[in-house]
Amino acid sequence: MRLSQLFTKTRKEVSTDETSKNAQLLIKSGFIYKEMAGVYAFLPLGLIVIEKIKAIVREEMDNLGASELSMTTIQSKDLWQKTDRWDDKNVDVWFKSELKNGSEIGFGWSHEEPITNMLRSYISSYRDLPVYVYQFQNKLRNELRAKSGIMRGREFLMKDMYSFSSDEDKHKSFYDNTITAYNKVFDRVGIGKDTFLTFASGGAFTQFSHEFQTLTDSGEDVIYLHRQKKIAVNKEVLTSEVLDQLGLKREELEELKAAEVGNIFSFGSIKTDQLGLSYVDVDGKTRPVILGSYGIGISRLMGVIVELFSDEKGIVWPENIAPAKVYLARIGENNEVITSADMFYKVLTDKNIEVIYDDRDIRAGEKFADADLIGIPYRVVISDKTLKSGLIEVKRRKEKESTNMSEKEFIKKLAT
Amino acid sequence: MRLSQLFTKTRKEVSTDETSKNAQLLIKSGFIYKEMAGVYAFLPLGLIVIEKIKAIVREEMDNLGASELSMTTIQSKDLWQKTDRWDDKNVDVWFKSELKNGSEIGFGWSHEEPITNMLRSYISSYRDLPVYVYQFQNKLRNELRAKSGIMRGREFLMKDMYSFSSDEDKHKSFYDNTITAYNKVFDRVGIGKDTFLTFASGGAFTQFSHEFQTLTDSGEDVIYLHRQKKIAVNKEVLTSEVLDQLGLKREELEELKAAEVGNIFSFGSIKTDQLGLSYVDVDGKTRPVILGSYGIGISRLMGVIVELFSDEKGIVWPENIAPAKVYLARIGENNEVITSADMFYKVLTDKNIEVIYDDRDIRAGEKFADADLIGIPYRVVISDKTLKSGLIEVKRRKEKESTNMSEKEFIKKLAT
C-alpha cells in the first residue's frame, strides 16, 4: 500500500470528548473514525486489522468443527417474548423500531434466540446433533454510557458461536475444547499471557460461566487472580464458598482491573425448551437439546490490544495482526532513492510481505513519527546514505536502535 | 465439505407465503433462512456464495483504485437533516430508534452523508483528491412490501462506493471507469449478457443516472431495450426528447421486465456543499468537491442469479460463484467405495478444488436430487460400478448425460 494513495492522515490531536486511550490512538493514526459515542467506523487500516483478527478467530472456530453463517440484525419480537428477553425490564440494551404495518422489531444485540429457532428446521433426531455454528456480526446495543472507545460500543463486531448438543457430557466436552481454542486465539493475537480464564456466575443452569479477562487498567471489570494457577474469579462469585470449591485462598488473589475479551456460557436446555427445540433419541424418546453460547468481541479485542501495546509514540501492533509487516520509508526525492525504494517495495509485495510504502514527499521526521504512531513491526529506511552503504536501515517498532543489513538479510529475518 | 457434517438439509416444500422463486429455491436447498418478510439469514452454503460474489466485486473495486472501509449502521440525525434526508416525507425507508438519553438515531439505508462528513477530516487541499472508497454493508430499509425474496430485502448486503473528485472531468472519467468495472463484475458472476446499461433520471445535478438492469420476469422494473446498441432507458426517462438525444427510436425498443443489480449516480457538489466538504485548489481558491455514488446489491445479485439460472430440478450456479466446483457422491457403503471416495475427496481438496462430498448413508436418488437442487457445476459418482471400470462418472449440472473418465482426466478438465 502506497501511503500517497491512502486518504487517511495521522493527526496530532483528537477531540477532547474522546477520553479512552484506544480510541485516541486509533483516531490519531487513522484506523477508526468516531461517528458518535460508542459508534466507530473502520477506516482502511482499521479494517485490515479487524480482518486479520477475524481470520485467526475463524481458523480456530473452524478447527472446532463449527460452520460459519450470518444471521440477521432485524429480529422479531415474538421470538424474544418466548424467552422473556424482549421486555426492556429484562434486557435494557435493545434498540427497537417498527415496520410500516406497525409491528415492532428489535435490532440484534445477541443471537441465541434466532439461531435456536432457525435450527428447529434442521434438528429433529439424534443424528442431526451436534451442531456448532458461528458468525461475525455487528451487534447493536443501546448502552447507557459508552466511554471506553471501541472497548464498549453501541455498535460493535462480535464473533458469536452456539453449540447444540445431545447431552451434558457432549456439551461439556465441546465447552472445554472451546476454552482451548479461545486460549489459542488470545495467544495468536498477542494477549495470551495477560488473559485469564475467570469464573463468573452461571445463571439458572450451571453454577459458573467463564470469562476471558485481559489485565488492563482501562478495563471496566475487577478480577481476583491467582497468578500461579492462572485462574481468576470475578466480583460476583467472590465468596468463601466458591473459593473453597476452586481451592483458592483469598489472600493469594490479586485484585486487578481487567477487560472481558471473551465469555462462554451454558444455557442448558432452558432456551431450547422455551423455543421448542428438542430431538428424538435412538430409542424414540424426545430429549432436550443443550445450548452453549461463546462470544469474542472482535472490535473490543482490537481496543484491548491497543491499550496493552502502545508507548508514548503510538501503537505497537503484535505482528500477527499488524496492518502490515513493514513500513518502508524512502528518505529523499532523487531518482536513485525513488527507484531503489520502488524496487524494494515490489520485491517485498511480490513475496506477499505486506508493506506500507511511505512514498510521500514530506520530511523524514514526519515519516518516522507516522511509522511509530501507526505501529508497524519493522521500519525500513532507504535513503542516499543507505544506498551508498549498499545496506538498508531496519528498526523494529519495539526497539530503540536501528541496524543496517542487506535487503536479502532482512527478507530472511522476516521469514524466521 | 462433508455433507454429513453440514447441519442444513434440503427440503421439498417451503412455506406458502414465500412466493418468489429465488427465495423458494434458496430455502429448499439450505442457502438461506427466512427470519421474516424481506429479512433472510445466510446459512453456510449461502454465505460461501455471498463471499464469492464479494471477492469478485472487491477485486474490481480495488482495480479502480478504491479503498475498502466499513462505516456504521447507527446514524446521527443531525447529519441527515443537513441534506434534508432525515424526514420520513423525503426518505420513506428509515428505521429509527433512540438512545437512552432520548436523542433520535437512524439505521443506515445508504451512506453518502456519513462518508462525506467523515472525509471532511481528511480532505482540504487538491493534493488530497481524488478519494475513492467502498464498503460491503448490511443496509436496513423499511420497505412497505418485501415480496421478491432476497431481491428486495428490509435487510440486505450492498457494496456501495463513493468517489470524491476535484472537477467534473475527473469525476466523469472515474464514473466511466466504474461502468467498465461493473460490466466486468456482471460478466464474471455470469449475468453479463443479460445485463444492460440503462439510462435513468439524474436528479438535480445531471440529466441521467445509470442503472444496470438484468432481464428477468421476476424483476420489479420495466426497461426499454435496444438490443443491437446494448443500451436501455427506464420508464421515467422514456420521452421522445431523451430518445432523440440518445439516437434511439421507440419502435426499435423492446419493453422488458428487469431487475436493477447496480446503479451509479452523480451528485455533483450538492451534498458536499450541504455538508461543508470543499478543497483549496492550486491557486488557493476554495472549490466544491464532486461526489459520485455507486451501488451493487450483493444479496440481490445472488437472488437475480438464481432467478436466471435454475431449472425444474433446482439451481444451476455459474461456476465462478458456485459454493463448490464438484459434488462428489459416493454410492454404496462398502469399504472399497468409501476408501476410494475419501481418497478422491482428499486429492481434490489438496488441489484446492472445492468439493461438497456427499458421504451420507442415503439412497443414490436422494443424492442426485440434492446435487441438482444445490446446483453444483460438476457431479462425480464413485460406486461399485465405476470402481470396476476404473473410471469415474462425471455429469455437468447444465447437461443431461454423464460421461466416464479417469480421475486424472477430470482434474485436467476442471483446470481448463
Largest sheet of chain A: 5 strands, mixed, barrel
Please state the overall shape of chain A, judged from the principal axes of the Cα atoms.
Answer: elongated
Please give the count of helices of chain A. 12
Helix content of chain A: 25-40%
Strand order of the largest sheet of chain A: 9-10-13-11-12
Q: Which spans of chain A of ≥5 residues are poorly predicted at pLDDT below 50?
A: none
Number of extended strands of chain A: 23
Kindly summarize this structure in a few lines:
The structure is a homodimer of 416-residue chains. With 416 residues, chain A is an alpha+beta fold. Helices cover 31% and strands 30% of the residues of chain A.
Give short descriptive properties of this protein:
alpha+beta; elongated; 416 residues; five-stranded mixed barrel
Structure notes:
- Two copies of one chain form a homodimer.
- The longest helix of chain A has 21 residues, at 168-188.
- Chain A has helices spanning 21-28, 44-63, 77-82, 112-119, 168-188, 240-246, 270-275, 298-308, 335-350, 364-374, 384-389, 407-415; strands spanning 32-36, 39-42, 67-68, 74-76, 95-98, 104-107, 131-140, 155-165, 195-201, 208-215, 221-226, 231-234, 254-268, 278-280, 286-288, 290-297, 310-311, 314-315, 326-331, 355-358, 378-383, 392-396, 402-405.
- In chain A, helix 2 runs antiparallel to helix 5 (168-188) and helix 2 crosses helix 8 (298-308).
- Chain A is built from twelve helices and 23 strands.
- In chain A, the strands form six sheets. Chain A has a five-stranded mixed beta barrel with strand order 9-10-13-11-12.
- Helices cover 31% and strands 30% of the residues of chain A.
- The radius of gyration of chain A is 25 Å and the shape is elongated.
- Chain A has 416 residues and is an alpha+beta fold.
- The mean pLDDT of chain A is 96.
- In chain A, strand 9 and strand 10 form a beta hairpin.
- Chains A and B meet through strand 1, strand 2, helix 2, strand 3 and strand 4 of A and strand 1, strand 2, helix 2, strand 3 and strand 4 of B.
